[in-house]
Specification:
The complex is a heterodimer of chains A (270) and B (348).
Chain A (H helix, E strand, L loop, with lengths): L19 H21 L5 H23 L2 H33 L2 H7 L6 H27 L7 H29 L3 H17 L12 H9 L1 H15 L4 H27 L1
Helix pairs in contact in A: 1-5, 2-3, 2-5, 3-5, 3-6, 3-7, 3-9, 5-6, 6-7, 6-9, 6-10, 9-10
Chain B lengths: L9 E10 L2 E11 L4 E5 L6 H8 L7 E6 L2 E2 L4 H6 L1 E4 L11 H11 L4 H14 L15 H12 L6 E5 L7 H16 L3 E6 L2 H7 L2 E6 L2 E6 L1 H7 L3 E7 L5 H12 L4 E3 L4 E6 L4 H11 L4 E7 L3 H9 L4 H14 L9 H8 L1
Parallel strand pairs in B: 3-8, 3-9, 6-7, 7-8
Antiparallel strand pairs in B: 1-2, 1-4, 4-5, 9-10, 11-13, 11-14, 12-13
The chains are: A mainly alpha (270), B alpha/beta (348).
């Protein structure tokens, strides 16, 4: 019966706050939990497997001729664009899943444990980086299969994939916030799509922004999604770490700086 | 400020929680001593869970203060969380993980090393009789198994204070009995337990002291015995040998105790309310003097049901009726047939 014997309240070594290293290890433990969940319900992988397969081929063949004259010259433009779009779609699922998770009893326990408040939010997001990785790799693979020859070579493509994963994690904070604000999973899905579509289409993902009306073009140019996609193109097509990569990272940092504190504050109040 | 060793395990003063216009908890004071089981008794919707959630740092406190071992719940939530294990009304374990994985997760989150986490998890599973189900999905667990796993998860770090929110709601009688044994064991080991319940029987069985909560307010506090005697009026039951003595006994009771006795001729029984228990002696002596032969004598304290009725002006029956419906809906697993309401029905 020794297992039950409690610590004496006065001898428990109380920590005044959660240290950074504990925060990271708690986040990684919760990321492990999320990967176990993923393994057990593989349907959550549809949006990062089936969708890139279909969308990449579809977009290339449908818009290729109209936008760039032929499919081959559209690929360097559209493949990085599609990676941006797919990763963003995968971020929506991050928020929706968080909502579903919040409604299950286990989050009550997370809340009452002496762990960093950010860990239950950041944990699943770290695990979702795996999904962004799959999406980026698959999109490149399909692109190469239909004739895309990235000028940046292997290193450029690897860099682009890495950036896509980091960007996915950053942008997912937007949808994590919606996940915390929305009443239920459907609601979260609704708001997220409403935000995701303008972010995707008011960007340079599919078309050059200079064809857009002035106000839309202005938005499209500062849209973090555009910044990321430009950087992805520079990396994949030229193999260069250009200023665009820096701007993409700045854009991501801004998104995290706004939405991570908002999310944690909201989570604390729940 | 008291020295830490003399601080009560929980102290709440003037605790308030409002949802819109509705004051779910309306100025409750509580003091839970170390090493005791403190029961918060009240019907569903009385504010028990809300109160517990505030003290567990799960809900912001709207008014008043809460302290756990001298640490303020609102300003030092991180310290409070390190001293506390909470088992909620509905099992808060991860449905997607196995029992072993659940305990591993919660152990690792609380800073246990890999080896220790594995070891403690295995020991707890054994202790809670879950070893066989250790690698089964939680969805295959019965209500009682979930509840046990949930309690096991709360005990990983051996917290000195444990909150149990309606620990046996929706459990079948056998599982309920096991849960009670486990709770008693916790206390023998030195834990302090704050439990909420809507079952008078449960409070009576487990709690050293009980606070009765109704409509967000504390309406009484004390040991089960104190509560019962505060309502006063034990009853004396006499069974006579000869039914023809009934009128004599009835007249004597009326004369000596000033109360109208109830007669049950079929079982030769006289029942009469007592202002004080020792009054029964007067009646017994008088009966012997008249040569009335008595087969059996019992003095009964009022049940907690009667206490509750007297304190709140309504019994728990209606509320419990709703609860059972809810319980069945919320606990899709087996064993939701719950004997409590019938027990109370019978004693009413």
């Amino acid at each position: 019966m020794t297992t039950l014997s409690p610590e004496r309240p006065d001898t428990v070594d109380l920590a005044p706050h959660v240290s950074l290293s504990d925060t990271i290890s708690q986040t990684m433990t919760l990321a492990w939990r999320a990967t176990v969940k993923m393994r057990r319900s593989l349907e959550v992988m549809f949006d990062v497997t089936i969708q890139p397969l279909i969308f990449t081929a579809m977009f290339a063949y449908i818009f290729g001729g109209a936008i760039s004259g032929d499919v081959g010259s559209y690929l360097p433009l559209i493949i990085p664009g599609l990676i941006g779009q797919t990763v963003l779609t995968a971020c929506v699922a991050t928020g929706v899943q968080l909502r579903t998770d919040l409604d299950s009893g286990v989050f009550d326990r997370f809340k009452v444990l002496p762990i960093a408040r950010i860990a239950p939010l950041a944990g699943p997001m770290v695990a979702d980086m795996l999904r962004y990785l799959i999406a980026a790799v698959l999109t490149f693979t399909v692109g190469i299969a239909i004739g895309y020859r990235p000028g940046g070579g292997f290193a450029g493509v690897a860099g682009a994939i890495l950036l896509a994963v980091v960007a996915g994690w950053s942008l997912a904070w937007i949808f994590t916030f919606f996940g915390l604000v929305g009443r239920n999973a459907q609601g979260v899905q609704g708001i997220s799509l409403l935000v995701m579509f303008p972010l995707t289409f008011l960007s340079n993902a599919f078309v050059p922004t200079d064809t857009m009306p002035r106000p839309l073009e202005a938005f499209a140019e500062v849209n973090p999604v555009s910044l990321v996609i430009t950087a992805l193109r520079d990396l994949a097509n030229r193999g260069e770490v250009t200023g665009a990569v820096g701007w993409a990272l700045v854009g991501c940092a801004v998104v995290v700086a706004i939405f991570a504190p908002l999310s944690v504050r909201r989570f604390k109040k729940m | 400020m008291n020295s830490p060793t003399t601080q009560p395990a929980v102290r709440a003063s003037g605790l308030v929680k409002s949802f819109g216009d509705h004051r779910a908890v309306d100025g409750v004071d509580l003091e839970v001593h170390r090493g005791e089981v403190f029961g918060v008794l009240g019907p569903n919707g009385a504010g028990k869970t809300t109160m517990l959630k505030m003290l567990a740092t799960l809900l912001p406190i709207d008014g008043g203060t809460g302290e756990v071992f001298g640490h303020d719940v609102a300003t030092e939530p991180h310290l409070v969380r390190q001293l506390l294990g909470v088992t909620g009304q509905y099992a808060s374990v991860d449905e997607n993980l196995t029992a072993t994985e659940n305990l591993w997760l919660f152990a690792r989150l609380q800073g246990l090393g890999r080896a220790e986490a594995r070891q403690r998890g295995a020991r707890l599973l054994e202790q809670f009789d879950l070893t066989e189900a250790a690698s089964k999905p939680i969805s295959a667990f019965s209500g009682g198994m979930r509840r046990r796993l949930d309690l096991a998860a709360s005990l990983i770090t051996r917290p000195p204070l444990i909150f149990l929110d309606e620990p046996t709601t929706g459990l079948d009688p056998r599982t309920r009995g096991q849960m009670w044994d486990t709770i008693r064991e916790l206390v023998t080991e030195g834990s302090t337990v704050l439990l909420t319940t809507q079952y008078l029987d449960e409070a009576d069985q487990l709690a050293d002291r009980i606070a009765v909560i109704d409509h967000g307010r504390k309406v009484a506090e004390g040991t089960a015995d104190e509560l019962k005697s505060s309502v006063g009026r034990s009853t004396l039951q006499l069974q006579l040998v000869d039914p023809s003595d009934l009128p004599t006994a009835s007249a004597l009771a009326q004369q000596l105790l000033g109360e109208e006795p109830t007669l049950t001729p079929e079982s030769r029984r006289v029942t009469v309310a007592l202002q004080r228990t020792d009054q029964s002696v007067d009646l017994l002596v008088a009966l012997r003097d008249r040569g009335v032969a008595i087969e059996s004598v019992t003095v009964q304290k009022p049940s907690l049901d009667e206490v509750f009725l007297a304190l709140t002006g309504h019994d728990t029956g209606e509320d419990t009726g709703e609860d059972t419906a809810e319980d069945t809906a919320d606990q899709p697993t087996q064993n939701t047939q719950n004997t409590q309401p019938q027990d109370m029905e019978a004693s009413r």
